[in-house]
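tool_log.txt
---
The assistant was asked to compare two proteins side by side. It first ran the structure predictor on the initial sequence, then on the second. Raw inputs and outputs are pasted verbatim so the downstream comparison step can read them without reformatting.
(1)
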Amino acid sequence: MVGIKITKQGKRLIILGLSCYIVFLFISLPASFLTRYILPSVQAARSIKLQSVHGSIWNGQASNARVGAFNLGRLDWDLSAWGLLIGDVDLKLNFRNEDTRGNGKVSLGFGGATQASDVEVAFPAEVLQPLIYGFPVSISGNFRGTLDEITFEQQQTLNADGRIVWQAAALRAPQNIELGDFLITLAPHNTGTKIKITDENQGPVQAEINIKLDGKGKYTLNGWLKARDQNQQHITEALRIIGKADSTGRYWVSYNGNFGNQRGRRRR
């Protein structure tokens, strides 16, 4: 039997070679590794559906991405290796389709929490129509803005901090009314979010609406709308649908419900 003696220098070369090979395998992991093994193990990512993924796990693309009922279109991502080592899936995202686009940083914790920061979005108002099921309205226009921080944990926390403008806001049902531009501000409140919607002092309708949304998806909505020019009869007639005007011409609205079951209840 022939014995092989390996010198110290030879051992170092073997260890270096194996280390380089392991690093090479780690770097060259395909994008499908993210969708097959990592995302399914993260509770917050189970509603994410990616189609036709390619590239590497670190810099990948999906031809189509969906989060729940929302279609994001093409998705590009950069994955942080350091995040995986400390137990998080940290991604820089960029998504777009024909009329929706956005980018930001997202951290999917294996413990169930999702955090996002510096999220810039632009999308048509019709995208949100499924969320307002139960309200007797159909909306249009475009949303543009930035969400500085978002924290989400299933049935526990839904905090958001940011500012979004609803441009060319309009109701398309029950009547067709051009509303103007509205400012939407979001701020964390306990385990939920306070949302305030106000007009930008230029459209035909004045408004101030306050929404409180908790971590379980329950909401309360209170506020008013008012025709800026009381002589615009088509607007005042449309506003009468939501209730009776007070002495100042404000039409008050009040709802509560749960986005989880997509049903709202109006309070008078």
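(2)
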Amino acid sequence: MPATLIGAHMPTGKGLPDAVRRGKTIGCTAIQIFTSSPQQWKSKPLAPDASEKLAEAIQETGIDPQAMVSHDSYLINLCAPDPEKQAMSREALTRELTRCAELKIPYVVSHMGAHLGQGEDIGLEMVAEQTIGLLQEIPDGVTLLMETTAGQGSSLNYKFEHLAKLLELTKSPKNLAICLDTCHIFAAGYDIRTKETYEATFAEFDRLIGCEVIKVIHCNDSKKALGTKVDRHNHLGEGEIGETAFRCLVHDARFEKTPIVVETPEADTMHEVNVQRLWNWAGEAKP
């Protein structure tokens, strides 16, 4: 069966319920949002009726509550060499996970960390230590998703082996899983441009980790070439990845019930276009 949960990261300038309703109007059956500014450490407390109003919008639109996703702050770095920044990161991520548990948003996506010169092994160990602690502090009902990265700068998790190591170090708690970003893995060097390379890349992921650990997919084409380690999203089918990978993705039976979320540029005008492309490809024959 083709994908059933296709959507986009929706702007929240007019509130979370509005983001859900506008997502529905452009064809989304999955929604990703920021619950607070991704460029600030502080976040405003939720209004007393925030959870109720979001639930009303989800019920009104028919969005699957399990297809709601939040993305954490871009400032978070669980392996920051500065202890103060590391503590602030853990506090901010814990706060986001707790807020999403209150809002009944089941998934929070995080870039997790950049080692900033300490080395990948030290960075991974620090991220694992912080993750173990914070996941013990959050309420039930929310899962932290470690996002694959492009490897830009000193970002971790651009190799599948990094994610496998973090799951090993944390002993794979039930509230820790993975968000795979198509642009990021391509920029990191994983080719998915043809049916054969798509299948080979996901076979490698399955061998090292298991595709069942992928709970959300960020669906983005890439402005930069394979292996450049530069994170620049493009509209689907218009970048270096091309259409075939996305056709394969929406026909991959493993991801039939996995939220597939567009994060392409020009959200106000192009999210609807990119979401519709995915639905169109899902409705066509397998590549």
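---
observation on (2): Residues 203 and 210 are 9 Å apart (CA to CA). The chain has a mean pLDDT of 97.
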